[in-house]
Amino acid sequence: MQHVASATDEVAQEKVIDTKKAVPWIIFLIFFAVLNETVFNVSTPEIAKQYGITPTGVSWVLTTFIIFFGIGSVIYGRLSDIFSLKKLIVAGILIYSVGSALGFVLQAWYPAVIFARAVQGAGASAIPALVMVVVARYFSPTDRGKVFGLLTSTVSFAIAVGPVVGGFVSSSLHWTYLFIIPLFTLISIPFFNKILPEEKRKAGSVDILGAALVAFSVAGIIVYLSFPHWYYLAASLALFIWFITHIRKANDPFIEPSLFRNKLLRGGLIVGFLVFCTVMGIMFVIPLMLAKVNDLNTSTIGLILFPGAMCAVIFGTIGGNLADKKGNNFVVFIGLGLLVISLVAIAFMVGHSPWFIAAALLPTYVGFSFVQTALANRVSLTLSVSETGVGMGLFNLITFISGAVGTALVAKLLDGGMMEFYKNPALNSLAAIPYSNLLIIFAAVVIISGMFYLRIFTKKASAQTSETAAA
C-alpha cells in the first residue's frame, strides 16, 4: 500500500513537460515507428520473386523485424531507468535510420536486407517503449489518459495504413524505397533534444546477462510461433527459468524481482495479455472467415475492415478523455462490454451479409481502443518513477507477445478442426461453424478478463494508486 502511494508522489515531483508542444512530435515519431511493422507486408511476393526464395525464406523480412522489436521494447525500458531518456530516444532514432539506409544501399544482397531489418527493429523498438516512459514520467496525471488515447489512435492508424502505403510505394517506385520512409524520423531529433529535460545517470548498472537471457527467451518464443518446432519453445522456457534464477541472485538485476510482487502491475499484465491475445486473434480470423465463408477477395475484405480501423483512430482519443474524467476502470469496463457484444453479434452473423459483419466489427475496434488506452494508463499509475521504464517495457512486451500468441493459437485451433463441436442454429453454412464457435470462446475469454480485472482493481486498489487528477 505504502509503495503505490509513494509512486504517485514521486511522479508528481518529476518535471512536467509542455503537452501541446510535445504531443505532435510524439505522434509523428510513433507513427513512423509503428508503420514499419506492416508496411512491408504487401511486398513479400515481390521480394520473394526478386531473390528467388521460398515463402518461408521471405517471411524473415517480417519475422526479423518483429524479433528485434519485441526484444528491444523491454531492454530500452530498463535502460531508461538508468540512462537519460533524451539520449536513448535519439540513439533509437539514429539506429533505426542507419538500418533503413543499410537496407536501401545493400538491397542487392538478401542477407544484408535481413540484417538491415534487424537493425531497424532494434532502433524502432526504442520509440514506443521510451515514449510510454516519457508519458508516464513527465506528463501530469490529468493529461496521461488523453495522451495514451492519442498514442492508441496513432498506432491503430499506422497499422491500418501501413499496407496501403507499402502497396503504393512498391507499385509506384520499388519495394526497396520502403527503407527510405523511416528517415523522416531524423527531423524530430532537435525537438526531443530541446523539450526533454537533462537527466544524470542514475544509480545502478546494466545487467548484461539478464538482458541477454530476456532477449533470447523472447526471440525463442517469437521464432516458435512463426516456425513451430518444439526445440525453440524448449530453449525459450529453459532461458526464462535461468533468467528467473539469475535475477533472484544478481546484485543489480535487469528486472527487480520485487516488481513482480506488485499485485496491480501483475494483474494489469495478465488482463492485457488475455485481451490483446483475443483481439489479435480476432483480427487474424476475420479476414480468413470472410474469404472462406463469404468468398470475398482481398480488396473487399480490406473495405470491410477499414471502417473499424478508422473508428479505433477516433475513439482512442475519446477513450483517453473519458479515462481522465471518469477513471480508467470505467473506460476498461465499457471497452470489455463492447468487445463481448460485438463478438457475440458476429458469431450469429457468420455467413450472412459481410456488411452486417462490418457494422458489428465497429464495437470491436472501439472497445479494444478503450481497453488499450485505459489499461496502459492504469498500469503506469502502479509504478514508481524508478520503475516506469522497465514496468512500461514489460507492458509493451506483453502486448507484443500476446498478439503473436493469439494469431498462432487461432491458426492451430482452426487447422486442427477443434472448433466444430457445436452448430449455432442462426448459421446458414457449415463452413461458418468453426468461426462462430471461436468467436463465442473469444467472448468468454473477454468476460473472464473483466472478472479478473474487477477482482484485482477494486475500489481499495484504486484508492492506493490515487488515479484521479487530485494526485
UniProtKB/TrEMBL annotation:
Keyword flag Transport: yes
Membrane disposition: Multi-pass membrane protein
Annotated signal sequence range: none
CDD domains: MFS_MMR_MDR_like
GO cellular component: plasma membrane
Keyword Coiled coil: no
Protein's cellular compartments: Cell membrane
Residue ranges of coiled coil: none
Residue ranges of domain Major facilitator superfamily (MFS) profile in the record: 22-461
Superkingdom of source: Bacteria
PROSITE patterns referenced in this protein's UniProt entry, alphabetically: MFS (PS50850)
GO MF term list: transmembrane transporter activity
Pfam assignment, any one: MFS_1
InterPro entries registered for this protein in UniProt: MFS, MFS_dom, MFS_trans_sf
Entry keywords, A to Z: Membrane, Transmembrane, Transmembrane helix, Transport
Broad class of where this protein is predominantly found: membrane
Regions crossing the membrane: 22-42, 57-76, 88-110, 122-140, 147-169, 175-192, 204-224, 230-247, 268-289, 301-323, 330-349, 355-376, 388-411, 431-454
PANTHER family per the UniProt record, alphabetical: MAJOR FACILITATOR SUPERFAMILY MULTIDRUG TRANSPORTER MFSC
Protein name per UniProt: MFS transporter
Source organism of this protein record: Paenibacillus silvestris
Upper lineage: Bacteria, Bacillati, Bacillota, Bacilli, Bacillales
